[in-house]
């Protein structure tokens, strides 16, 4: 059996999650490779169609958000059970979502990854694996193999990595199914959303001359086999009385409301992220966004372990932090599906929830949840900022005004100190963190929580979440630095 050169990390799957993770690892100098079963990046058909506010912040933290903003359309896309939730008053540089199809999201992420010199082996997938105390042997579908220190499964809901690792995938069985497609039509349909006793359906065309995008709820739960043009024709006739003369499909796929989450995000040297770790109905559009944020949480932690900065046990915090986030996404999504049933009793409930969410406090709470701006990792008691996303403040530094996110472009931790920093000594971590002395005169505000007290110093992890807050003293700083970024280096 011929073998590729050894790699520190192998990522199975080159979708948004796998690409984002590869970029994070490459920024830290980790030798990483992606194995992707598709022969090219743009063979995916119609899937996710937008980025939420927190994901835009994550991309902004890496200095690449402008690429996505230039390709998409900024809109108020946050919603719960198709009830729009305005976030235009939220304290974020991106108080909106971005309408952008997954094809374009992947293309832009792939461009970034290529700039970072990450190799992508296309037309291959993981066929088997064996792990030992030192690494993982990854068998590929063409008979070759890779040896790596760690393997990350970003290979979707049917993840071969998850199955081979023996990680259970409990959850809820599907109750309904949908067909989505891009097709040409003979007869021009009336575009828009249509509701009936079967469910919710939609027809639209993004630009003149492009294929029609179709989403139709099936009368009965469809089989797990790949759908055909005849299946789509029958589904359309059942709803609209005609199939509009559909032909020449670009893509046809079936999805359901099946809801599952991996029991563990880690099994030894094998980790899971994105749809390999959690699947759910696309209502609310949180799937792709959750996967990208998985990657940003995992990337810097895995890089530090590979680079010998922190122990292997530090990877356990990935499951501890991200598993609860996805569990809430699954629960929120199931609640939306329950509210989207089309019978009269459910419609009455939906109308009442819609009225409730028009009130300011419920609107802010659910909008923060759906946009990802309220994610809070449990890092202990303390200042309200602890464990939450760092606001993108406009700071004054010796070099001039600068935004906080600018300091995170290279995915390194940042210690922000406001005022005189003489009492802070981080010499033992000088090569690992960036020390920034700055002034800030404005208020500190978080979604839902509102105004919070101004700290004297803040330690920011590479994923943009706050690991320590100083309130007039440095108590706990050394412990936080050691916990997240390894012990202090010996003085020379």
UniProtKB/TrEMBL annotation:
Alphabetized UniProt keyword annotations: FAD, Flavoprotein
Top-level lineage group: Bacteria
InterPro entries, per the entry: FAD-bd, FAD/NAD-bd_sf, RIFMO-like
Cofactors (names): FAD
Domain (FAD-binding): residue spans on this chain: 8-332
Pfam family, one: Rng_hyd_C
Protein name stated in the entry: FAD-binding domain-containing protein
Species assigned in the record: Mycolicibacterium sphagni
